[in-house]
Amino acid sequence: MNPVALAALETSSIAQGVVVADAMLKEAEVELLEACTLSPGRFWVLVGGSVATVRASHRRGVEVAADTLLDQLFLPQLHEMVLPALRGLVPASTDDAIGVLETLTAASAIVAADTAVKAARVTLRDLRLANGLGGKGIVSLTGEVSDVQAAVEAGRAEALRRGLLARAVVVPRLDARVRARIV
Description:
The protein has two domains: 5-75, BMC (bacterial microcompartment) domain (Alpha-Beta Plaits, 2-Layer Sandwich), CATH 3.30.70; 82-182, 2-Layer Sandwich (Alpha-Beta Plaits), CATH 3.30.70. A hairpin with a 7-residue loop joins strand 6 (123-129) and strand 7 (137-143). The protein has a four-stranded antiparallel β-sheet, with helices on both faces. Strands 6-7-5-8 form a four-stranded antiparallel β-sheet. The chain is globular, with a radius of gyration of 16 Å. The protein contains six helices and eight strands. By secondary structure, the protein is of the alpha+beta class.
């Protein structure tokens, strides 16, 4: 299944996160894409499906999360590159430039990635969430320098709007030795 819409909730309580996941799935017929702990001591629920069912599930999750809600997202028109990048299924590249967006939460990384790939002709190479990253999210984009700059600026602006940007960079002509390790 390739979901049209995506919703996620990140809670400060692992126990309440399990309750949130259960409530979201009981509220509407959605696909559970992820339900797991995130470091440091958070819980993450990611669901996909049709816009209406994901919206209903998201609303219920926000309600149940209550004061444990750290961050959330609802994307009614998910870009097709987001899930493959999240799953680590994008092949290596020799693109001219790389852009990296670093956010403070997993949800904000997905929103920044979706915004960035909708803004310019880039490839979403990687989307890493929280575990091993101190709770942060990392978005890696490649393409022509001007496209990567435009995409990173769009993702940066979205993360800033949410108050969750750690850093955004563009590296033109990435050294081949670095590319071999990260792209």
